[in-house]
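Help needed: design a sequence for this.
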């Protein structure tokens, strides 16, 4: 018999009732917080609507139709530097992994200075733009695929 099962035997009935009471109080607190969260969510929607900020429901109703609009939406959702974005890399031999700037010159013989120079220090940086984002969106391979932005014709 486990310690928890024996603890709720005949000698600990008062303690069991105390625990059940605390469980009921915590469930009531969670329900109250759920109601507050929903009220806050409704208030936030109303405020965003009054400012004209796109929410998930309004974005679905006004989905972009052209490739250029889709790329603009994608870039607006991922703030940061507009001229560069990260690419996931993984070394299966060592298990190391991380992100590096996506570069059109990466590993090009005579141009890329890897591994002597880090990408951020390279004088031959060729960070890719909107076409690479569009290729990424069309590829359907997911953001973790190491070469998703380097495949021509996708």
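Sure. Designed sequence:
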């Amino acid at each position: 018999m486990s310690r928890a099962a024996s603890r709720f035997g005949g000698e600990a009935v008062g303690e069991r009732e105390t625990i059940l009471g605390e469980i009921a109080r915590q469930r009531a607190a969670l329900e109250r917080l759920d109601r507050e969260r929903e009220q806050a969510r409704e208030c936030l929607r109303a405020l965003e609507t009054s400012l004209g900020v796109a929410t998930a429901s309004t974005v679905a109703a006004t989905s972009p139709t052209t490739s250029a609009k889709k790329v603009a939406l994608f870039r607006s959702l991922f703030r940061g530097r507009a001229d560069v974005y990260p690419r996931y890399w993984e070394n299966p031999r060592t298990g190391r992994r991380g992100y590096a700037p996506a570069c059109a010159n990466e590993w090009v013989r005579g141009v890329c200075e890897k591994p002597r120079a880090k990408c951020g220090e390279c004088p031959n940086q060729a960070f890719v733009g909107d076409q690479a984002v569009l290729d990424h969106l069309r590829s359907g391979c997911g953001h973790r695929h190491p070469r998703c932005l380097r495949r021509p014709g996708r």
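The first helix runs from residue 3 to 7.
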